[in-house]
Amino acid sequence: MSQRHASLDRVEVDGVILGAMGFGAPTADEGAEVDRLLACLDAGFDAIDTAPLYDFGASERVIGRALAQRTGARPLVLTKVGLRWDDHHGEVLFVARDPASGAPMPVRRDSRPESIALEVARSLERLGVERLDLVQVHQRDPHVPVAATMGALAELVHAGKVRAIGVSNFEAADVAEAARALGEIPLTSLQSEYSLLAREIEAGPFAAARDVGAGLLAYSPLAQGLLTGAHGPERRYASDDWRADTPRFSRRARARIARALDEVARPIARRHDATLAQVALAWVLHQRGVAAVIAGASRVEQARENLGAASLSLSPLEREQLARGFDGLGEDPLARVTGLPRRVGRRLLGPLRRVGAALRR
Ligand SMILES: NC(=O)c1ccc[n+]([C@@H]2O[C@H](COP(=O)([O-])OP(=O)(O)OC[C@H]3O[C@@H](n4cnc5c(N)ncnc54)[C@H](OP(=O)(O)O)[C@@H]3O)[C@@H](O)[C@H]2O)c1
Q: Where are the beta strands (DSSP E) in 24-128?
């Protein structure tokens, strides 16, 4: 397979999108973050995924500064709406800490039309662009009809401020409703967690996305690094590292994953002269209905390596071996302890690990 170009309706992206959740951490020097992002973009990414929530505007700000410095074609910018930390309206999803004062800061779901319009205006300003290439509703707001939110986004498309519309972390019925509500405007994408270790969406939201012609943007495709071989059971984490108390990074979980990496993924990687990260990303990219993977990178070399996954072709047998080899290994120990359904436990863990890290700072 040659370099893979996934096609989202109205938005052309490479098969590997740079995830910018880790750019703009309050402890980091913002100028250095801009340089790191520029170096990643120079590796060849043509799309970046961000959100207003990522470090409370800082990720978008860093991207805006990088784009202002960069010459040549601008990468596509994919951002989100629907999670607010700067207002008192809406259901609290989790409580973060204000990076400046340390005060508790509730993060709320808010997908009211007026809130969507305001968020888009702020994102345009932070990013310094005239139009957002893809706006995704970050989380379903149970108190606002999906049709009302989609109506607001459709107006922004007509006003030329947004090119395409997507949703994120939506259940199957909500994906279908969003597509219906948009009418002639296509629902471009569903962004959900999907990897060899996280396949819960397959029968529900992923199938629903395929049904309405929306491409899957797979987030955390490396299972936050667990599929790269860098997290063997012997590795120790500092107490302020969010992974130290994250169940999917427990020693037991890592030992089981390391075994599957050695027995199944490593021989395949060797055969293709590829890395484990590339094999994990390529597996996702081969799944029917996947438009792109959104992979994070803490170093430029990782970003470069991840791009290489787009040209890695796995045989049907290799894909099947990988699927079987990792089956069940992503199960959430937390969900078993709390009795929460796996899906719910996993959905809570994403925000919680960020909050945990913020609280420990
Ligand atoms: N819509 C949502 O609710 C949602 C939720 C989560 C994420 N996302 C999006 O998805 C993006 C990626 O998610 P993620 O960062 O959670 O997961 P990920 O892409 O699965 O993992 C990224 C991490 O894996 C490690 N890594 C990356 N490439 C590597 C390589 N080639 N070799 C070795 N290690 C490598 C790095 O961590 P270390 O170097 O520290 O090991 C990196 O920070 C985010 O930036 C964001 O845009 C969206």
A: 47-49, 76-81, 83-84, 91-97, 104-109
Nearest alpha-carbon partner for 279 in 206, 222, 199: 222
- What distance in angstroms lies between residue 153's CA and the mean position of ligand 1's atoms? 27
* CA separation for the pair 247, 269 (Å, rounded): 27
Q: What six digits make up the tokens of 108? A: 């709320």
Confidence check: pLDDT of 145 > 70? yes
In the reported structure, the alpha carbon of residue 92 is separated from the centroid of ligand 1 by a whole-number distance in angstroms of 25
19-42 pLDDT per residue, tens: 999 898 777 788 999 999 999 999
Cα four-point dihedral sign 162, 165, 167, 171: positive
The residues near 29 (Cβ < 8 Å, ≥ 6 apart) are: none
Per-residue pLDDT tens for 248-276? 999 999 999 999 999 999 999 999 999 99
DSSP string, 99-164: TTT--EEEEEE---HHHHHHHHHHHHHHHT-SSBSEEEESS--TTS-HHHHHHHHHHHHHTTSBS-
Mutate to test the pocket of ligand 1, among 21, 77, 191, 249 (most ligand atoms within 8 A of CB): 21
Give me ligand 1 centre to Cα 221, in Å: 7
- DSSP for residue 318: H
Could you give all domains of the chain from N- to C-terminal order, each with its CATH number? 5-225+277-313 (3.20.20.100)
How is 188-204 classified by DSSP, letter by letter?
A: EEEEEE-BTTB-TTIII
CB atoms within 10 A of CB 78: 31
Beta bridge partners of 166: 136, 189
Report d(CA 299, CA 305) in Å as an integer. 10
Residue located nearest, by CA, to atom 19 of ligand 1: 295
Q: Is the pLDDT of residue 340 over 50?
A: no
Strand residue runs (E) in the chain: 5-8, 11-14, 16-19, 47-49, 76-81, 83-84, 91-97, 104-109, 134-137, 165-168, 187-193, 215-219, 290-295
Could you give the dihedral angle defined by the CA atoms of residues 327, 250, 277 and 28, in that order, rounded to the nearest 10 degrees? 150
Q: Is the pLDDT assigned to residue 5 strictly greater than 50? A: no
Look up 54 and say whether it is catalytic.
yes
